[in-house]
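Please check this:
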Amino acid sequence: MAETPDDHNDAPWDEFQWERFLQEQDRKTDAFATLYERYFNHPDRDRIIAEEMGWNVFADAEEDQERFESFLSEAMDHLSDAEEQEFDDEFEEYSRSVAYDDTLRLHRWINRLMDKREELRENPHAAKFALRAAVCGAKLAAGFCGHDPDEVGMTIAYLKRALHAANDSLDALSSLEQEGSLDRRRANHGRRLVFKVRDRIVARIGECRALWRARQG
């Protein structure tokens, strides 16, 4: 059985312990991304991916939904009013940050690009660019919303995943330019948007590591 944070109640985990814990999640995410790119234009893409991933699509989806709703209900029931307000305050703080603005600007540009260039919707490099940019934004949000001192290691681990996703999106963008699907001007603009988000991630990792050192010595 995989080691969990609850096995170590004496001290908070550092970023490397959290990374080991999250590796299984990473493997599943990477496997899905690989299959999605491989079968992007296949008419039975969803069925093939589900079979490759070992999913019983309808039964698993219903079971996962019920499990999630049950978990969410129990989690909310155990939140005190102060904890619930703290969670809301953290997200509100993130939504007013420059990191949030940069991420939103990137996603809006990608959406406009896909709307104007419908042929890109069938391009696997474009799909990877959009997918990895979305993953980057989600991981970044987790990194900016976690202020619990005991979760600094987890925050860094998620931010490193955001950084990895940003690098993947840059690679996909370069592939789009090299194959001629995106002109240099648009590719450079996309890079500037991704690098702004990437810079926020690097800065946040530095802040969190400084906080960890200050607390743990």
The chain has eight helices and no strands. The radius of gyration is 19 Å. The mean pLDDT is 79.
